[in-house]
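User: Predict the complex.
Assistant: Input components as received:
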Amino acid sequence: MSVTWQKRTHGVQRHKETFDRALARVFLGGVIVVTLLGSLYLAFVATNTRLSGQVWQMEEGIAEWRRQNEALTVEIARLSSIPVLQQRSIALGYAPAANVHYLVLPEP
Amino acid sequence: MLRDPESRLRLIALLLIALLLLIVGQLVRLQLFEHPRYVVEAKQMLERQYSLPAAPMGKVLDRNGALLVGNLPVFEVDAYLERDDETATVIPELAVVLNRPELELQAALTFQESYTGTHLWAPLARDVTSDTVKQVRAMDLPWVTITPTWKRYYAEGALASHVLGFVNVEGYGYGVQAYQWRLLYTPPELSAGVISGQNKPLPEEVARRSNTPAPGVTLRLTLDRTIQAYIEGELDKALLEYKAEAGTIIVMNPQTGEILAMVSRPAYEPTRYADYALTNQVGLFVDPAISKTYEPGSVFKLIPAAAALDSGLVDTNWTYEDTGVLEYGGVVVRNSDRSAHGVQNLEGLLARSLNVGAATLTTRVLGAERFYKFVTAFGFGQLTHIELANEAQGLVHMPEDWDWQDGFLATNSFGQGIAVTPLQMATAVAAIANDGVMMRPHIVAERISPDGNSVKIEQTPLGQPISAEAAQTLTELMARGIETRMKQATVPGYRIAGKSGTAQIPVSGGYDPNHVIASFVGFGPLPDPQVLILVKLDRPAIDPQLRWGSQTAAPLFQRIAARLFVLLHIPPAE
């Protein structure tokens, strides 16, 4: 900025500087607000994405646990099924009962 | 003109403002006026329809909670190939892992010359176990897709196969599963959203909408698997002993209508239903207990006896002269032993199973209108609405029918010319056991939703065809009948009421001269019957003099009743 220009504008210089400072403050304030809002938005989006990922993992986990649970239920049912129990009983030395009677024992 | 710096500044400011207005204007246009169009375009570009994972189907449990039908977690392995994908080097290993012939796999993974598309989809394996899937994943083939799914698992193998049934991929089937399929099965859900390259929803999509599908409703049946296994074993032994072609046993609680066990032979393995279909054996799927009708024979004499007692037209002192022959409506009715039995009362009629006596009741005591009113009240010719698919309603000729013949009134009295299902017969006799109140037979005891809420199925009376007094009188007559003339059906320590039957089998142009259906239906212990058992043996191929219901079905009934009283913790009264 030349000295000649400063002299020529000397009359309005002070007023202009005051205006510029105010404008700069407003601009700066705006930048700060926009930055804050942007940061908040980014933080929100980041949190949302992270939580979504966690939910997704949990959903995957639930599905996998459910499948394992069903597999175990089926395995328990297989092991306690009548043919398997019969085989195990016979292997342990038990024999199928041919003649079963209901015994009523007298009161002691 | 623009040498003045302020003017230049103003100009620049104006230009900037104009630019800003332009941008704002564009933003307004894009965000407000053209927003819907861009939303649609964005969705088209980013979102695709994807299917949520398959939900497990509802389980089927027995009355004590033992698993009868469950779900085995399996996988579907498919290929989604591009033309430049390398497959040749991995086919030998993949064939071993998936247990498929190498040539077959090669053919499946080859672009045919006539095919012009850029991608090829081919199913590689179904019902794949997790161990095999681990091996496939280890091969790291980008063109292989693995989809988790479920396979129906029958914990007790072929036990109760007719009752449990199955449902094929088209949604058609048999048994309780087909009847309750809408509750058991949650169809794969489709959703639209932003998806990944593997056609799966992105985490944001999952967060917005749960990806975990709700499983089907679990059914707790009235069946007891121990009783079921026992009667299946007994029926198999009886079929061998009496060389019978087929057979049915129904065990029900006459007071509640609960089916405790129900078996028919021949049966099938539900897991192999597709194999039966391929070999034209679909006839095996039909449950004779509910879907096939038969002429019940002498067991049906209970119905005219009940009708006559309830109407007050006869009592235990009523008698008739049994001449051994009765002619009515052009039909000549004879007793099975071709003999005349002289003066007989109601007890003698039932104990000796006299056709002439039964026909006397319907033709000379009751009349057609009254008799068929009771036949209808006992549920014959109508569905019982048990929760099993493909129930038959039977066939009852009514006097108002176009094909009615007067002779039906005589023949129907002893169970000829009328078609019933074993379940209808059991339900009707259960009404006699339950003081005249007929309960709806049911197989589902409880429905349990995935969130644990359960709905117990109410025991529903179908009606009261006869009074309690008539039912009790008839029960007493039935009990005396087997105590005096059919000891082989009695169980020491327990009082039982029952009736046997030996029915001819209708064939084209008459009745099969060589075969019969032997049956017995009984209940006990009196006076508070908790079990009703119907036994039916089709075409026992033993000595014709030894194949009567009283000689085949009755002893089988006795064996089953004796064991059931113990299994059900019913102590002897004597």
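The radius of gyration of chain B is 35 Å.
Let me know if you want any component modeled separately.
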